[in-house]
C-alpha cells in the first residue's frame, strides 16, 4: 500500500509564522493511521510527530483518499521533509519571506512580459484616455504605476448630479 502513497508539500516552502500543511494521498482509507514525522533534512532527526487528520475523498478526484498533516506549530527555520511510514516528501524550507524570496522576480518578469514591453507598451503609450495625459512615474514594488497630472485632471469635465 505504501508505494501508492504520496506526501504533497508546498514546493515554495513555508513562512515561519504561517500555517504549514501538507497532504498525505493514499489509494484507500487507512483504518489505523500511523504517525507522520517532520524531519530535519540536514541530519535526518525527527523534530515533530504529526497525526494525519481527515481521510476524505475529494469530489471528481480519482487519486484516492486525502489526509491533512498540520505542522503550523513548528517555527524553526531550516530545511525539512515529511515522512509517513516508508514514504518521504520532497525537501522544503521553512524561513522568513519564502513567497517573496522565491517568487518575486518571477512575478515581476511575468507582468513585464505580459504588458510592459514591446508592441503592447508602444500601443499603450499612444492610447488616449478621456483626454488625460498619462506619464510613467516609476516602478513601485515592481509594478508600473500610472499617474495623471493634476493639471490634466482639472481639465476633465466633472459629472453633474
From TrEMBL:
Gene3D superfamilies: 1.50.10.10, Immunoglobulins. SUPFAM superfamilies: E set domains. Residues 8-88 form the Cellulase Ig-like domain. GO terms for biological process: carbohydrate metabolic process. GO terms for molecular function: beta-glucosidase activity; cellulase activity. Its EC number is 3.2.1.21. Keywords: Glycosidase, Hydrolase. InterPro entries: 6hp_glycosidase-like_sf (IPR012341), Cellulase_Ig-like (IPR004197), Ig-like_fold (IPR013783), Ig_E-set (IPR014756). Belongs to the glycosyl hydrolase 9 (cellulase E) family. This is Glucosamine-link cellobiase. It comes from Vibrio maritimus.
Amino acid at each position: 500500500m505504501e508505494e501508492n502513497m504520496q506526501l504533497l508539500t508546498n514546493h515554495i516552502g513555508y513562512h515561519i509564522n504561517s500555517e504549514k500543511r501538507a497532504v498525505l494521498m493514499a489509494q484507500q482509507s487507512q483504518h489505523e493511521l500511523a504517525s507522520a514525522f517532520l524531519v530535519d533534512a540536514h541530519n535526518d532527526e525527527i523534530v515533530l510527530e504529526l497525526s494525519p487528520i481527515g481521510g476524505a475523498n475529494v469530489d471528481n478526484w480519482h487519486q484516492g483518499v486525502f489526509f491533512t498533516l498540520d505542522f503550523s506549530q513548528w517555527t524553526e527555520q531550516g530545511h525539512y521533509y515529511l515522512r509517513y511510514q516508508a514514504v518521504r516528501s520532497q525537501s522544503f524550507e521553512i524561513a522568513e519571506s519564502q513567497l517573496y524570496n522565491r517568487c518575486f522576480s518571477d512575478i515581476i518578469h511575468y507582468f513585464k512580459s505580459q504588458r510592459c514591453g514591446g508592441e503592447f507598451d508602444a500601443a499603450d503609450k499612444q492610447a488616449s484616455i478621456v483626454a488625460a495625459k498619462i506619464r510613467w512615474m516609476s516602478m513601485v514594488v515592481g509594478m508600473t504605476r500610472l499617474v495623471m497630472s493634476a493639471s490634466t485632471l482639472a481639465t476633465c469635465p466633472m459629472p453633474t448630479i
